[in-house]
Amino acid sequence: MSRFQFVADNSATFEVKRLCELVEIERSSYYAWLKAAPAREERARADAELAERIRAVHAEDNICGAPRITAELNDNTPAGERG
User: Fold this and answer.
1) 26: phi > 0 → left, psi -120 to 50 → alpha, else beta; which?
2) Structural domain total, the chain
3) Is there a single domain that holds both residue 27 and residue 48?
4) What count of Cα atoms within 13 Å lies in the side-chain half-sphere of residue 24?
5) Separation of alpha carbons 6 and 59, rounded Å
6) Residues 21 and 48 in one domain
7) pLDDT at 74 > cutoff 90
8) Which ranges in 24-76 belong to alpha helices (H)?
9) Residues 30 and 49 in one domain
10) Angle at CA of residue 59, ends 48 and 44, nearest 5°
11) pLDDT interval class at 14 (50, 70, 90)
């Protein structure tokens, strides 16, 4: 558990200011972390989707390595979105 998550989990019971002092983080950092939560969730979703695509490519031919998997993932992908 991160210190930021600890503060978030206990903010209904204790003041955020006091919790931040306890775990030695700046309040502004905590609020920035809170504000970035949707972006973190989106990245996690995108990472899970990519992992599933990699598993599918690997399942077809389990002896292919990273270059081959990358090439397979880039097939039918617009140039701006290639990895």
Assistant:
1) beta
2) 2
3) no
4) 0
5) 39
6) no
7) no
8) 27-35, 37-60, 66-74
9) no
10) 5
11) very high
Q: What confidence score (pLDDT) does residue 48 get?
A: 97
What are the contacts of 4-10 at 24+ separation with CB within 8 A? 4/29, 4/30, 4/33, 4/34, 8/34
- Does one domain contain both 24 and 53? no
End-to-end CA distance of the chain: 31
Q: Say whether both 57 and 75 belong to one domain.
A: yes
Do 46 and 77 share a domain, yes or no? Answer: yes
The SS3 of residue 13 is coil
pLDDT band for position 83 (cuts 50, 70, 90): low
Using alpha carbons only, what angle is made at residue 65 by residues 67 and 46, rounded to the nearest 5 degrees? 70
Tell whether 30 and 47 lie within a shared domain.
Answer: no
The domain containing residue 30 runs over which residues? 3-35
Residues 30-71: tens digit of each pLDDT: 999 999 999 999 999 999 999 998 888 888 877 778 888 888
